[in-house]
């Protein structure tokens, strides 16, 4: 009976651990999806370019990198962002 109780509690413990693990994964995926949505929806009101996409000059080439935070000004036309 005690063994059965221990087995039961272990099962509950593993189940709740997997549930918590799943919650963390779901939360992580949700935040990534929200960021991607925001990155494509948040656009400069003047040049319509995504404000999180910032041009970077590297070895004479113009590359683009994704910024995690919204900059104060548009990286393309310099328009002040709200
Ligand atoms: Zn712009």
Task: State the gist of this model.
The chain is of the alpha+beta class and 82 residues long.
Helix and strand arrangement:
Blueprint: H1 2-41, E1 53-58, E2 61-66
Antiparallel strand pairs: 1-2
Write the element-wise H/E pattern from the N-terminal end onward.
HEE
The stretches of 5 or more residues where confidence is low (pLDDT under 50) are: none
Total beta strand runs: 2
Beta content comes to 5-15%
The profile of the biggest β sheet is:
2 strands, antiparallel
Q: How far apart lie the N and C ends?
A: 65 Å
Mean pLDDT: 79
Q: Given the helix and strand composition, which structural class is it?
A: alpha+beta
Q: What is the helix tally?
A: 1
- Spatial ordering of strands, largest sheet: 1-2
User: What form results from the Cα inertia axes?
Assistant: rod-shaped
User: What's the oligomerization state?
Assistant: single chain
Task: Please tell me how large the radius of gyration is.
Answer: 23 Å
The helix content, as a percent range, equals 40-55%
Q: Compounds present?
A: zinc ion
């Amino acid at each position: 009976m005690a063994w059965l109780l221990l087995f039961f509690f272990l099962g509950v413990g593993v189940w709740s651990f997997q549930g918590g693990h799943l919650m963390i994964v779901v939360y992580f995926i949700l935040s990534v999806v929200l960021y991607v949505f925001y990155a494509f929806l948040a656009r400069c009101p003047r040049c319509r370019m995504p404000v999180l996409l910032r041009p970077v000059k590297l070895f004479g080439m113009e590359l683009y990198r994704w910024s995690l935070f919204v900059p104060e000004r548009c990286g393309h036309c310099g328009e002040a962002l709200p």
